[in-house]
Write a structure and sequence with these properties.
Number of domains: 4
Structural class: alpha/beta
CATH topology of the largest domain: Rossmann fold
Strand content: 15-25%
Largest sheet: 6 strands, mixed
Radius of gyration: 25 Å
CATH architecture of the largest domain: 3-Layer(aba) Sandwich
Strand order of the largest sheet: 5-4-16-15-14-6
Length: 689
């Protein structure tokens, strides 16, 4: 007979993965060292809803190929041949190689390379703290939000918006450049509630018929990189047809006769010629948007991953100011909420100690940096040592052929701290096993909701896995670099950050299940002022404050024609979009996710398939001046004929030639503040015979 104590136990946690939702979780512990199903916890925003891939997390945490011990390369670089060694020997080796590099070239020869593989602030900060204190090269973080942030801040002035839960009061929900069915399932939960209870309409603006677009009442399938033109044409209609809120414009923005004259020339016909939409589609959407007071604009990152992404984001952010949607419950917009938490992370990041200055290297320009391009490394030394955490640049970084060549340099010492032998880890000299989120403590803030959350380790780490915080603290000791944070337990460090920020302590936050940092209506809707000194939204932004590339930016909301435009030689525009059951390169190792995604494919419009003589399953090659990729074709409508879509970040070896889709993506930075243009690629396409 089974006793009560033998039954599975449920414990609370928080999803750490690179997603705006940062979901509250209930973990089923089948034993002290094994989990079963994961379910959504009863937190007010995530509301018990989680994505299927996280629900199956047992597949990942208990995976037979998980890294459990330190490994040292014994074969040629890239051969995948390693031998086991102890943590002490691994740390000694790493410290020795870092000190050798610094001794030869100075501290800036070391580049700590890290990103958003965990959203936990404590585990993310450890390497950044060490790099700051050591004077190593710093990192311009440009993979994801750099272009979007610059565009939103140009107009709004602060990164926050209307609480997503307010969507239940909306009559119109516009998802612009996002696919929440894949990437923010919680938002769809709230949107569907508004549709059921209020009859709210859902409009999706996206270059292809995503699963979110398939559920929408209206889908505007525009050409990639033309979102700014559509936004300007919508404002043209609002102003011309009396649908603009001129009182709001006068009270809360810098709207002027010059802005109005500029937008008068951005007609629906002008936008139709650029976007590939019809005049009728543009006008109908503009009238719907302008005629609906409670219109909620959920802005995604997708349309900003273009060379003109910042300009497009600024133009789109102008819409609720032009319509006055900010005034109304269920109206306004949300891009992200990072500006509401007010966390003081100076101690966490080692910035309280007067850290030495260091150059800033663009993470999206990794290939160029490792090639020694002086436009990237300046007058400083070459990068001869890298320590990588929380990212997989051999797959994710643009111009992946050049990245691979750089990572394979004989004079580069590469250490990777990881869960699996990823594409990047396979190229490393030293690979160290990392904990997963259920095996360490951390502090989490979200961009898609307003809750500050903590989570404790719920099970021991398997094998010899060590957390980012523990590993980096031990490395710092060997390097002779001191800071109180290195010696603090994770939970105590969380407590310190919260105390420095005037927030409840870690234990209290855990007991509460999270702290709701949502702002009052007036603030959330910017009725008490936008984030600029004069409190006004900016139709005419100060681009110089957003980045050094400001001279290329349009003075007013506009379409910025700097994208990789199709040509006779390269007639297709490629969008490299996220997949449903992968998250960047995470979950590409789990059996169920791989089975559901099947294989890398390219979605091609049926008319283009007929023209090229293609059938489903045919092998095709996509190519441009950077390289070529072979994969299988899949006929798919719901997009314009010269748009092609490749979903997911499959490992390189999943592709027929062992190289992934980012071999085609340029590392040319967007304006004004840099940023990777993953969806801004012109390619040729041919059928393999």
């Amino acid at each position: 007979m089974t006793s009560h104590n033998d039954l599975p136990r449920q414990v609370r946690s928080v999803c750490p993965h690179d997603c705006p939702s940062v979901c509250a979780l209930d973990i089923q512990l089948e034993s002290p060292e094994r989990i079963g199903r994961i379910r959504g916890a009863a937190q007010p925003y995530t509301d018990g809803v989680i994505c299927a891939k996280v629900a199956r997390y047992a597949e990942r945490i208990h995976h037979s190929e998980r890294l459990l011990h330190p490994l040292r390369r014994i074969g040629a670089k890239g051969s995948g041949r390693f031998e086991r060694l102890s943590w002490d020997d691994a740390l000694d080796l790493l410290a020795e190689r870092l000190q050798q590099a610094v001794g030869q070239y100075g501290p800036q020869t070391v580049w700590p390379y890290h990103y958003a593989g965990t959203m936990g602030l404590v585990q993310r900060a450890a390497l950044r703290r060490l790099g700051n204190l050591a004077g190593w090269s710093r990192q311009r973080e440009t993979f994801c939000v750099a272009l979007a942030d610059a565009g939103w801040l140009a107009g709004v002035g602060v990164k926050r918006g209307v609480d997503a839960r307010e969507v239940v009061h909306s009559d119109l929900i516009v998802v612009w450049g996002g696919n929440p069915v894949h990437t923010q399932i919680n938002f769809m939960h709230w949107a569907q509630k508004a549709r059921r209870e209020r009859g709210a309409q859902l409009v999706v603006i996206d270059p292809y018929r995503t699963p979110t677009a398939a559920q929408a009442d209206r889908h505007l399938a525009l050409k990639p990189g033309t979102d700014g033109a559509l936004a300007c044409a919508v404002m043209n209609v609002l102003l011309a047809e009396g649908l603009a809120d001129r009182d709001f414009l006068a009270r809360h923005t810098d709207f002027s006769p010059a802005v109005e004259a500029h937008l008068a020339a951005r007609t629906p016909q002008w936008a139709a010629d650029i976007t590939g939409l019809t005049v009728e589609e543009i006008v109908a959407f503009a009238r719907l948007y302008g005629g609906t007071q409670a219109s909620y604009l959920r802005v995604g990152y997708g349309f900003t991953r273009q060379r003109n992404g910042s300009a497009a984001m600024h133009a789109v952010s102008c819409l609720p100011a032009a319509s006055g949607a900010w005034r109304h419950r269920g109206g306004g917009a949300l891009y992200g909420h990072s500006g509401i938490y007010g966390l003081n992370t100076a101690f966490l990041n080692g910035l309280d100690a007067g850290t030495p200055s260091a150059r800033l290297l663009d993470m999206s320009r990794l290939g160029a940096v490792l090639a020694g391009d002086r436009r990237d490394i300046g007058d400083g030394p070459p990068v001869t040592a890298m320590l990588v955490q929380n990212t997989n640049p051999a797959v994710v970084a643009p111009e992946s052929a050049r990245v691979r060549a750089g990572l394979l340099r004989d004079d580069l010492f590469l250490c990777v701290h990881e869960h699996f032998l990823t594409d990047t880890a396979k190229l490393a000299d030293l690979v160290l096993p990392a904990t997963m989120f259920l095996e360490h403590d951390d502090l989490y803030q979200a961009s898609g909701h307003t809750f500050l959350q903590t989570a404790r380790a719920v099970m021991p780490a398997p094998g010899e896995c060590r957390s980012n915080h523990a590993f980096i603290g031990q490395l710092a000791a060997r390097l002779g670099i001191t800071h109180p944070a290195f010696a603090m337990p994770e939970w105590a460090l969380i407590d310190r950050v919260l105390a420095d920020s005037g927030r409840p302590g870690a234990d209290q936050l855990l007991e509460l299940g999270g702290l709701d940092c949502a702002l009052p209506f007036e603030q959330a809707h910017f009725l008490d002022g936008f984030g600029h000194p004069d409190g006004r939204f900016r139709f005419a932004p100060d681009w110089a404050a957003r980045g050094e590339g400001h001279a290329r930016m349009p003075a007013l909301p506009d379409h910025q024609p700097v994208i990789d435009t199709p040509t006779t030689d390269k007639p297709f525009r490629l969008v490299a979009a996220p997949a449903r059951t992968f998250l960047n390169t995470t979950f590409t190792e789990t059996p169920t996710s791989r089975a559901k995604e099947k294989r890398p494919t390219v979605k091609i419009h049926p008319a283009a398939c007929r023209r090229l003589g293609l059938a489903d399953g045919d092998v095709v090659t996509l190519g441009n001046e950077l390289g070529a990729v072979r994969l299988h074709a899949e006929a798919s409508d719901g997009m314009q004929e010269n748009t092609v879509i490749v979903e997911s970040q499959w490992p390189n070896d999943a592709f027929l030639d062992g190289i992934g889709i980012n071999v085609l993506v340029s590392a040319e930075p967007g304006y004004p503040a840099a940023g990777a243009a993953y969806h801004d690629t012109a390619v040729w396409l041919r059928r393999e015979t």
